Amino acid sequence: MKTILLSMALSLSLLCDTTIRWYGDFDEALKASQSSRKPLFVVAVERGCSECRELFATTLMRKSVVAIVNSKTVPVIVTKESENYPIELLYTLSYPAIFLLSPDEVLLKGPITGAVEAALLEKELFNEL
After folding, report:
1. What is the distance between the alpha carbons of residues 13 and 91, in angstroms, rounded to a whole number?
2. Which CATH code is given to the segment(s) 20-128?
3. Cα separation of 113 and 97, whole Å?
4. pTM of the entire structure?
5. pLDDT tens digit string along 113-122?
6. Residue 126's closest CA among 54, 45, 38, 51?
7. 23-34, pLDDT tens digit by residue?
8. Are 100 and 42 in contact (CB under 8 A)?
9. Which residue of 35, 56, 67, 85 has the smallest Cβ count within 10 Å?
């Protein structure tokens, strides 16, 4: 039994280190951002968007990106179809769109649109952190 629990714990810790720990609710992410004073890393997506799937399957799975996003930001996914985020602040016509917001909801950077490569994301966005 101890071996099974240890294996599960190790698997979960490895999983946490290899994927971004996303919030699915903007308000919850904003509260976490305000309490940690880390900026929000917002990815706006649209249903059926092939570039959105590509971004999540490639760039947002790279170890360097995962490490920076998890350690220096509060990551949240919002969908075009939902209305539970500040649409006026995060306005875009192109998806996916990546924004960096301060804990006080001030736009720091963005939008960066499309299935961008990790190098471009690091250069354009992560230099702000």
Report:
1. 35
2. 3.40.30.10
3. 4
4. 0.84
5. 999 999 888 8
6. 38
7. 999 999 999 999
8. yes
9. 35
